[in-house]
Design a protein that fits this description.
There is one protein chain. This protein has about 600 residues and is mainly α. It contains 24 helices and four strands. The strands form two sheets. It has a two-stranded antiparallel ribbon with strand order 1-4.
Length: about 600
């Protein structure tokens, strides 16, 4: 049988092309930090993190093409440089995921306080670095040997090839991205900025002159939103998720909430009082579906544990030299990385979040296990099981640390963060593998991105969330944080602490989530399109209805265009346009928040 590693070394590996250059690292850190800000804004609004790497590669290609056109450089950005840049950008951009921007907002919601900025920067950077090193021992097995698909990594490699080919495809994508970004920024400016000289302002919502239970539809959040961001977010989803969001919004705010209001369970009409009750059903849908889907991956889990046990066994000496010894990251870097970054994370957990040192020490090997599982599941399905790993580790620490709310939240943050960043690096390493890149240089790029992302995300969070009441509001629903906070609260206080109606809501949500997750696996592929997405349904129960409506419209337009043009041609337009809408509106929205925070602009 042919050795796939030797075959890659002979046919794909490109040792003489520049990869981890200074400009690639600086571009990756800069673009990644900016996209981290954009992702922070989006995740606080929708609970979803938006893809970073493909958009970063387009931006980097366009930027360097412009620099070359004006004569500031003679050498265009190479494919492997762009790939290394993407590794740094993705590490920075995804600093909002892996539980980071669920755990921290949940902590703020439940305690009303937040740790010092530098503690959070070091905390997030340490967790992300552990995730990078956790990916080292399993890279060759998952990517070189088993050749798992890692669909996003494969798509990134294809995008980089297309950008650097001698055709107009890359230029068109860059133009679409720029036009959409400018459009999103203009919409955000005329909606959010509050300046006397502005000729008009775009309303945040467009209401219909109708009532429900004697209240205007807008009070039930049933309206259209003045937002290109939500259209873009919807366009990047599947149409199934889009119509599930619409279904969930209609049921939640048009049927369930009015019924609970009439019954006196919900005492007033408005986003916060409604979601204060519906969050229990939404959280149950999300958690139960995540755990059920995770259970169907039991073979991957068993295989991951088996592989981890093999890694712990002493290696037998072999006569044959390793042909990739100078190319792959050495296996010794895995324990060295954990020895360097593990103790500081354990110390910070004890110092800032009251996690006992012994519990923090347990979190480290548990995070390795979760990282291995997350990486394999991501490689097979392209879905990192954060919604499952978060509750699982929250449950574990609820047993280890009963009645300890803050330690429960932040201990789970360690395992979720490690899992995400391990899966993120392996996704990037997949694109590098297909392009012939050197893996250890991508690891260094990832670590540079970790620094950029941690330095960007914390100050931005402080500006966007000046007070705890901002979270869970119509402006920033923070659905991921709501779910995380309520799961921890229930595990610590016990389900008996809930109002009886909330218990029934949680039970019904759990049954719905479990049933939908089973149907996703068991129904024929063609019929799956008609099964509501539990993620879409659950999220719709904890965000304003107008968010869900706009995301549905975006997904519907993208689906229409996909059917008209086909998958590949439509993606070349849909991805940059949708990403441009998201980046333009979110970054301008953050700028307005900064101007208000620094007293340059009055509050709207």
């Amino acid at each position: 049988m042919a050795n796939p590693e030797l075959e890659w070394l002979e046919k794909t590996y490109r040792p003489n092309e520049p990869q981890l250059t200074v400009r690639a690292v600086l571009l990756g850190m800069g673009i990644g930090a900016v996209m981290c800000l954009s992702n922070l804004y989006v995740v606080l609004k929708t609970g979803w993190s938006i893809g970073v790497t493909v958009v970063a590669c387009i931006i980097a290609w366009a930027a360097m093409a412009g620099v070359k056109a004006v004569g500031l450089t003679k050498r265009p950005l190479g494919q492997l440089e762009n790939n290394a840049m993407g590794s740094a950008a993705s590490a920075a951009g995804y600093m909002t995921g892996g539980g980071n921007m669920a755990a921290l907002p949940a902590l703020v919601m439940l305690t009303g306080t937040r740790p010092d900025a530098w503690i959070l920067i070091l905390w997030f950077a340490g967790i992300a670095a552990l995730g990078v090193f956790a990916a080292i021992p399993i890279k060759r097995q998952l990517i070189n040997q088993e050749q798992l698909p890692f669909p996003t990594g494969t798509a990134t490699a294809e995008t980089i090839r297309a950008l650097h080919a001698q055709d107009e495809g890359g230029a068109k994508q860059a133009r679409w991205l720029g036009i959409a970004g400018l459009s999103g920024a203009i919409i955000a400016w005329f909606r959010d900025a509050n300046l006397s000289w502005m000729p008009f302002r775009i309303p945040s919502t467009f209401s219909l002159p109708l009532t429900l239970k004697g209240k205007p539809l807008s009070e039930w959040t049933l309206a259209l939103e003045g937002s290109a961001l939500m259209l873009g977010a919807g366009a990047l989803m599947s149409f199934r998720t889009g119509w599930s969001l619409l279904l969930g919004a209609g049921l939640t705010f048009g049927v369930i909430a009015p019924a609970m209001y009439e019954a006196g369970v919900i005492t007033e009409v408005g986003y916060k009082p409604i979601v204060g009750w519906t969050v229990w059903m939404g959280a149950a849908v999300l958690v139960s579906s995540g755990l059920t889907s995770f259970a169907f991956q039991w073979k991957s889990v068993v295989k991951s544990v088996t592989e981890l046990m093999k890694l712990l066994r002493p290696k037998k000496a072999t006569d044959a030299a390793d042909p990739l010894a100078d190319i792959e990251a050495p296996a010794s870097w895995f324990p060295i990385g954990f020895l360097i970054f593990g103790p500081p994370v354990v110390f910070l957990g004890w110092y800032a979040f009251d996690i006992p040192l012994w519990a923090g020490a347990i979190a480290l090997p548990l995070s390795v296990l979760m990282g291995v599982i997350a990486a394999r599941v991501t490689g097979e399905t392209d879905v990192t099981p954060t919604k499952a790993l978060g509750p699982v580790t929250q449950l574990i620490f609820a047993i280890l640390l009963p009645k300890a709310l803050v330690p429960n939240i932040m201990s789970a943050n360690i395992t979720g963060g490690v899992g995400l960043h391990a899966a993120d690096l392996l996704t990037d390493l997949k694109s590098g593998y297909l392009l012939g890149a050197r893996p250890r240089q991508q690891l260094f790029a990832q670590l540079f991105g970790v620094v950029a992302g941690s330095l960007a995300v914390v100050p931005a969070f402080m500006i966007l969330v000046p007070t705890p009441d901002v979270l869970g509001s119509k402006e920033f629903p923070a659905p991921g944080a709501l779910v995380w906070a309520n799961v921890s609260k229930m595990l610590v206080a016990g389900i008996d602490a809930l109002h009886p109606s909330a218990r029934w809501a949680a039970l019904i949500g759990a049954l719905v989530g479990t049933t939908l997750a089973i149907l996703e696996v068991k129904v024929p592929k063609k019929a799956k399109a008609w099964v509501p997405s539990p993620s879409g349904l659950g999220i719709a129960m904890v965000i304003p209805a107008y968010n869900s409506i706009m995301m549905f419209i975006g997904s519907a337009v993208a689906e229409w265009y996909r059917r008209k043009k086909g998958d590949k041609e439509s993606a070349a337009v849909t991805v940059p346009v949708a990403s441009g809408f998201i980046a333009g509106e979110s970054l301008l929205g953050i700028l307005v928040k900064m101007l208000v925070a620094f007293g340059v602009m009055p509050k709207g």
